[in-house]
Design goal:
The protein is an alpha/beta fold. Helix content is 39%, strand content 15%. The protein is built from 14 helices and ten strands. The strands form three sheets. A five-stranded mixed β-sheet has the order 2-1-3-10-4, with helices on both faces. Helix 6 links the parallel strand 6 and strand 7 (149-152). Helix 1 crosses helix 9 (224-244), helix 2 (30-37) crosses helix 10 (250-261) and helix 9 crosses helix 14 (333-340). The chain starts with a helix and ends in an 11-residue tail after the last helix.
């Protein structure tokens, strides 16, 4: 059935102008920066419209209702929606393993112990990085709703701005939150009065983890037009990821990151270091956007520890649930076509 679909889709796709892609994302990753700045999307016939995600609830509603064609978000969200709510979200590849994923605080907070009695800002208390945050704090004896509290704010860009400002728009004090690429490095470049303190790195508590994942609605995989766009988008990102991980292309990668994020050369270097870190960067097993099974099982274990699968029966087989295949939580059919469609000449592109 799958190979018949490929044949029919290839026959149906005709050469024409650039196809628009609504791409939802929480952050402008290094891989995206390279694909965008070096023209890889255009080379695959795409006009990618970057859509800044305000929060995870909105983001996954958009991917399900067709507002986004593809989304990169924390894989925990896809697991939660698929297993707890039976929503037809499909992970088509892993982008990273949590680059610069940290617990960061306002300058006057210098230890995790000082967070006792405070409210911490999050995207959602039941998705994404919130469970990893709970894990970090639990290792220091702090428990949610007993020793600290969550306040829902939204995506990382919003939380970073509030953390640096030291308060929410309504004046409520901000003490700490989870940060990730590119905001961790951007924060390091700020003046001391605004610079967040890094209290802990997630990788020091849970390692490895599967973090950002390419996510689509399941129905898109069996639609010729949507399938074709997804394949070409993933091919462009795969090309960019190979380029990022090629040390001989470091200069061009740095320029692309710096230009996309509008940061100094020094900050771009910090971003590059985070994105290319072998254990937590924009990496995947085999380098082909394969989901790290140990990393995903660690993410699941943390959610399970804090009763994040209350709708599932005792003894649920999570290992079986994350086996890839057609119609499953993880489906590599798009990824496989994207890798096969690599335009190798783009890897030689200069800046």
């Amino acid at each position: 059935m799958f190979f018949r679909l490929i044949f029919l889709c290839i026959a149906a796709v005709q050469a024409h102008g650039l196809d628009s892609v609504n791409y939802g994302a929480f952050t402008q990753t290094a891989t995206y920066s390279i694909a965008n700045q070096l023209g890889f999307f255009t080379a695959y016939g795409l006009d990618v419209l970057y859509q800044q995600v305000p929060n995870s609830t909105y983001a996954y509603a958009q991917i399900l209702n067709g507002g986004y064609d593809i989304l990169t978000g924390t894989i925990d969200n896809a697991v939660n929606l698929r297993l707890n709510s039976n929503e037809n979200v499909t992970v088509i590849g892993q982008l990273d393993q949590g680059p610069d994923l940290v617990l960061a605080s306002s300058p006057n907070i210098t230890s995790i112990a000082q967070l006792k009695g405070k409210s911490l800002i999050v995207d959602s208390p039941v998705s994404g990085y919130s469970y990893l945050l709970r894990k970090i704090l639990s290792t220091h004896g702090l428990l949610l709703n007993t020793d600290y509290f969550f306040q829902t704010v939204g995506g990382t860009n919003l939380r970073y701005a509030d953390l640096v400002a030291g308060k929410l728009p309504n004046g409520t004090a901000v003490y700490a939150t989870i940060l990730v690429y590119p905001f961790t490095a951007e924060g390091e470049a700020l003046a001391a009065a605004q610079r967040p303190n890094i209290l802990a790195r997630v990788s020091d508590v849970v390692d490895p983890i599967s973090s950002s994942a390419f996510t689509a609605r399941q129905s898109a995989l069996s639609n010729c037009t949507e399938n074709d766009i997804l394949v070409r988008f993933m091919s462009a990102m795969y090309t960019a990821n190979l380029y990022l991980r090629n040390p001989t292309k470091k200069t061009c990668s740095l320029r692309a990151i710096g230009k996309q994020l509008n940061v100094t050369a020094a900050v771009a270097q910090l971003e590059y270091n985070a994105a290319t870190a072998t254990d937590t960067g924009e990496v995947s097993p085999g380098g082909t956007f394969t989901v790290s099974q140990p990393g995903l099982l660690n993410v699941i274990a943390v959610r399970e520890e804090f009763n994040g699968f209350s709708s599932l029966p005792s003894g649920y087989n999570f290992t079986a649930a994350i086996v890839s295949g057609e119609g499953k939580l993880i489906d590599y059919s798009i990824r496989d076509l994207a890798v096969a469609g690599l335009k190798k000449h783009l890897l030689k592109r200069t800046c």
